[in-house]
Design goal:
Helix 1 packs across helix 2. The chain starts with 5 loop residues before the first strand and ends with a helix. A 7-stranded mixed β-sheet has the order 1-2-3-4-5-7-6, sandwiched between helices. Helix content is about 30%, strand content about 30%. The chain is of the alpha+beta class.
Length: about 180
């Protein structure tokens, strides 16, 4: 895969809801759990994230075209409270690649690598935490490709999740370059 110009900016719930609505409601985004959401539901969901001091959402563009959604959260204060023992420097992450009729081989791996680089660009980030649905085998493979190691299954209110971690060193080893 050739190098791409990747830009990640904060999501504006009112401006970006129309852009991301078809992404999060697409059948391929079933694990995002927004199937059936109307535009206003997506706006409301991302307004709540914008209002939460422990959760942020971003839109990522590849070569100038909006192509993915990224969320960053503090797992000690959101999403995983009481489900594992957080460590200083833990950062939670979700990402979603926009659906396309013309998939490009390696594109999703390029996106998750860029997301991880963005998270590790903050020197305070020591480890990234993810909790994908246990049935989401495609994302488990992507996570492994960038250095995530599954720890155990956990029960969240909305799903059984595979709690996985990736340290800065694991990421650098997996992608073969310094983050």
């Amino acid at each position: 895969m050739t190098a791409h110009d990747i830009d990640i900016r904060p999501l504006d719930p009112l401006r970006d809801a129309e852009l991301i609505h078809p992404w999060v409601t697409h059948p391929k985004a079933a694990f995002w759990m927004m199937q059936g959401f109307r535009l206003q539901d997506v706006e409301r969901e991302y307004m709540a994230i914008a209002a939460n001091p422990h959760h942020d959402a971003f839109v990522g563009s590849v070569d100038g075209v909006p192509a993915f959604l990224m969320e960053r959260y503090d797992p000690a204060k959101a999403e995983l409270v009481g489900l594992y023992e957080p460590e200083p420097g833990d950062v939670g992450m979700h990402f979603l690649v926009a659906p396309t009729d013309t998939p490009v081989h390696g594109f999703t791996r390029t996106v998750i690598t860029a997301v991880m680089r963005e998270l590790f660009a903050d020197p305070a980030t020591a480890r990234v935490v993810v909790e994908p649905d246990v049935r989401n085998t495609a994302v488990h493979a992507l996570n492994a490709a960038v250095g995530f190691v599954p720890e155990r299954e956990i029960q969240k209110p909305e799903k059984t999740a595979l709690l996985s971690f990736c340290t800065r060193a694991q990421f650098e080893t997996a992608v073969g370059a310094s983050a």
